[in-house]
Amino acid sequence: MMELLSRDDFKDTKIDPNWGPFGYLLYVLHVDQLKLQKSHNAPPPPQTLCKQDHTGFKLRFKFNNSVGLKRKRNLKAVEEEDDGDWVAPKLKPKKRRKQEKSVCPIPPTNLPPKFRQLIVEDMGGRGLVLVIQKTIFFSDINPTASRFSIPFSQVKTHDFLNDAEAKELDDKNPMQVWLLDPSMKGTNITFNKWVMGSSSLYVLTNTWNPVLKNNQLKKGDMVQLWSFRVNYLLCFALVKL
User: Fold this and answer.
1) d(C-alpha 186, C-alpha 73), whole Å
2) Which GO terms describe its molecular function (predicted)?
C-alpha cells in the first residue's frame, strides 16, 4: 500500500531560496523515492546536482524505471544542456510555395512636363488624375480586338468619373471622349465599361488600332493613362514611359 509523505520526511531538508517551482517538485519526488526504497530495503537512488541558472537551482535524478519516471530524453542530450553547450536541432527549411513570376511595377511618375504644358497651359485642362499604369499585353495590340483594356484591379482611382458619367457606363452607354496619344496628337475614341463574369474593366475602343500604329506601341511597353477635363468634358492622355 502506498504511503503518503509527512512532515517528518522533510525534517532534514535544507531549503535553497533559489529553487523554483520545478526544483521543489523534483525534490518532493526525490524524497518520495527515498521513502519507497527504504520500504523495500533497497539502496536509495543516486542524486545528481546541476549547476544553477536563471530559473533557480535545478535537480536532476535517475529513477528506476520499475518504480520511477521514465526519462524521455537521452543522457547525452541532458548532459549537453547541463554543460551549457546544448545546440538547438536544425530544422528543415519550410518549402516555399511556388509562385507565378510577376513583373515588378515601376513606381508611378509625374506627368511629363511637355504633356502638362500642352494640357494645362495650351488647352486649359484641369483635374489631372492618374487612372492606370500598366504594361501593354498581347490583347491590347490584337488588331482584331481593337481595344485598350483598363482592368478595375489595376485602376488607381475611379474618382475621375462624375456621377452622371458612372451611371451612363453602368447603363451600358459608351461615351465619346478625346484622347491625347503618346505623340501628343488628339483623336476621338470610345470609352466604355465591360463586365465579364466577376471581373469589370474600362476599355478604349473603335479607333484604338490607329493609335497603336501611329505610336508604334508593342507588347511589353509601359504606359500611363491620365484623365483631365476641358470645359468639364472628360479627356484622356496616354503617355509611354
Assistant:
1) 80
2) DNA binding
